[in-house]
Design goal:
The chain is α/β, with parallel strands linked by helices and 450 residues long. Helices cover 48% and strands 6% of the residues. It contains 18 helices and five strands. The structure holds flavin-adenine dinucleotide.
C-alpha cells in the first residue's frame, strides 16, 4: 500500500491546476492537504489585516472544494520546520509535496526539505505559481534581467507548462486540525471588513468566475485600463496572490478562443502578468526587496521625518488632493486600489511628502487584499526610483494633471470623495509645486554624494 502524501499548500489555494496536488493524486495513497499558518519562522512576514481577511475566506472555500472530493483540509499553526515533520509522523506519510515560493521563506523550504530527506521522507517541489521559474529566464551571462522589456521578450520564447488536472477524488487521513475560526483572521472590535465583504468573494470558484467574466466582458476594453472609474481590469490580483487561480490558467485562457477585441488586448494584458513575473524574479535574487533599496545609491537619500499629521492625512484620504484622497479611501474601504491611482498616491507620499517608500509599502501591505511580497515592494521601489527598471525619481506625478487626464468626468473622485468641491473639503496639506522642488533638490543632493 502506498503511504499517505502531505501536500503543503501555501500561495496556491486551489485544487485545479495544482501540480503538487495532482502529483500526490498520481502517486496514489491518501492525501493530507495541509495549510500551515506560520507566523513563527523569522523568514515569514506577518500578513497584513486585509490579507488575513482574504485568507480566511479562501481557506473556507478550499476546505469545501477538498471535502467535495472526499478529502479534508488540515489546518495547523506554528513553525514549518517543527509542524510538518510532526504531521508526517502522525499521518505515517512517506512523501511531502509542495509548490515553490520565491521570497525569503524559500529558506524555510530548503531547510525543511533537507530535514525530511534525512528522515527518508520523499520531498518534491513543483513549479506552479509563475509562468516561468526565475532561473529559466536569465541573460546570456546567466544573471537575472534588471530590465523588463528584454526579460519579457526572453520569457515569451519559453514554453508554458500544461495545466495540471484537479484530482477527481481523494482519500483523507484522520489527523487533527485547528478550527479556522480560532485563528481569528477576521477582524472583530472593530469589524472594519464591511467594505471588503461588499466587494469580494474569496475562493477558487469565485476566481474562476472572475476570469470568465473578465475574458467575456471586459478584456475588449482593456486598452482603457488607466481610467480608474471604469472596471476594465481583471481584478485578479488577490486571486493570483493567494493562488486561487494560477497565471498558467490565465495564460492558457488568453491563448484560447477570444473575440477580435479581446485578441487585440491580450498581449498587453499578458505583459502585466509579465511584470508580476519580473518582480518575482527580482525578489528571487533579492529576498529583502521590501526593506532594502534595490539601487544602493538611494541609501544616501535624505527622507524627511514623517510628519504624523501628514501621514495620517495620506493614510485616511484627507490630503486635500482629490485623486490621492479618492485612492486612499478606495483602498481603506475595499482593500484594492486602481493601478494608476496606486502610482499617484505612492508618488505623493514619496515625493511630495518626501517619506521613505518603506512607510508606504508597509501601509499597503496591511491594507491591500492583494499585498504581495514581490509586487508591492517592487512597485513601491519603481515609484521611488530605487528599484530595478524603475521610473526615474525626477519624474514626479502631478496628481492634479493625472486627475484631469485619467478621471476626466470626475466620476472616480466623486464616488470616493463626495464632499469634493464643497466647503467641507480640506485645503491641500502641502503645496504641490514647492514640495516637488524640495524632492528634486533632495534627489540632486543624493546624486552628488553617491
Ligand atoms: P490587471 O491590469 O488586470 O493585471 C492583471 C494582473 O497582472 C494583476 O492581477 C497582477 O497580478 C499583474 N499586474 C498588473 N500590474 C502589475 C504591476 N504593475 N506589477 C506587477 N504585477 C502587475 N500588485 C499586486 O498584485 N500586489 C501588490 O501588493 C501591489 N502593490 C502595488 C503597489 C504600488 C505602489 C503600485 C504602483 C502597484 C502595485 N501593484 C501590486 C500592481 C498593480 O497595481 C496591481 O497588480 C493591479 O492594480 C491589480 O489589478 P488587476 O488585477 O485588475 O490588474
Amino acid at each position: 500500500m502506498t503511504s499517505p502524501t502531505v501536500v503543503w499548500l501555501r500561495d496556491d489555494l486551489r485544487v485545479d491546476d495544482n501540480p503538487a496536488l495532482a502529483a500526490a493524486a498520481a502517486r496514489g495513497g491518501a492525501i493530507v492537504v495541509l495549510y500551515l499558518l506560520d507566523e513563527a519562522s523569522p523568514e515569514s512576514r506577518p500578513l497584513g489585516g486585509a490579507s488575513r481577511w482574504w485568507l480566511h475566506g479562501s481557506l473556507g472555500a478550499l476546505a469545501d472544494a477538498v471535502a467535495e472530493r472526499g478529502g479534508r483540509l488540515t489546518l495547523r499553526r506554528g513553525a514549518a520546520e517543527t509542524v510538518v515533520p510532526r504531521l508526517v509522523g502522525e499521518a505515517g506519510a512517506g512523501a511531502v509535496y509542495w509548490n515553490r515560493r520565491y521570497g525569503a521563506s524559500r529558506e524555510v523550504d530548503a531547510r525543511l526539505k533537507q530535514r525530511l530527506r534525512d528522515d527518508d521522507v520523499e520531498v518534491r517541489s513543483f513549479a506552479a505559481n509563475l509562468l516561468h521559474e526565475p532561473w529559466t529566464v536569465q541573460t546570456e551571462q546567466g544573471a537575472p534581467y534588471r530590465v523588463f522589456t528584454p526579460f519579457w521578450r526572453a520569457a515569451q520564447e519559453r514554453p508554458v507548462r500544461a495545466l495540471a488536472p484537479a484530482p477527481d477524488s481523494m482519500h483523507a487521513v484522520e489527523v487533527e486540525s485547528d478550527d479556522l475560526a480560532e485563528w481569528t483572521l477576521l477582524p472583530t472590535a472593530p469589524d472594519w471588513a464591511g467594505g471588503l465583504r461588499e466587494t469580494w468573494t474569496p475562493g477558487e470558484a469565485a476566481a474562476r468566475d472572475s476570469l470568465d467574466d473578465f475574458v467575456a466582458d471586459t478584456l475588449g476594453d482593456y486598452h482603457e485600463r488607466d481610467r480608474p472609474e471604469l472596471t476594465v481590469t481583471s481584478r485578479l490580483s488577490p486571486r493570483l496572490r493567494f493562488g486561487e487561480v494560477s497565471p498558467v490558467q490565465v495564460w492558457h485562457r488568453l491563448n484560447g478562443e477570444l473575440d477580435d477585441a479581446g485578441r487585440r488586448n491580450a498581449g498587453k494584458f499578458l505583459s502585466e502578468l509579465g511584470w508580476r513575473e519580473f518582480n518575482t524574479s527580482i525578489l528571487f535574487s533579492t529576498p529583502d526587496l521590501a526593506t532594502r533599496n534595490y539601487r544602493s545609491s538611494f541609501d544616501a537619500f535624505e527622507w524627511a521625518d514623517p510628519d504624523p499629521a501628514e501621514l495620517d492625512a495620506w493614510r485616511h484620504g484627507r490630503t486635500g488632493i482629490p485623486l490621492v484622497d479618492a485612492g486612499m479611501r478606495e483602498l481603506w474601504h475595499t482593500g484594492y486600489m486602481h493601478n494608476r491611482v496606486r502610482m499617484v498616491t505612492a508618488s505623493f507620499l514619496v515625493k511630495n511628502l518626501l517619506t521613505d517608500w518603506r512607510v508606504g509599502e508597509q501601509w499597503f501591505w496591511d491594507t491591500l487584499v492583494d499585498s504581495d511580497e514581490a509586487n508591492n515592494a517592487a512597485n513601491w521601489q519603481w515609484v521611488a526610483g530605487s528599484g530595478a527598471d524603475a521610473a526615474p525619481f525626477f519624474r514626479v506625478f502631478n496628481p492634479e494633471l493625472q486627475r484631469t487626464k485619467f478621471d476626466p468626468h470626475g466620476r472616480y473622485v466623486r464616488r470616493w470623495v463626495p464632499e469634493y468641491g464643497t466647503p467641507e473639503y480640506p485645503e491641500p496639506i502641502v503645496d504641490l509645486g514647492e514640495t516637488r522642488r524640495r524632492a528634486l533638490a533632495a534627489y540632486e543632493r543624493m546624486r552628488r554624494t553617491s
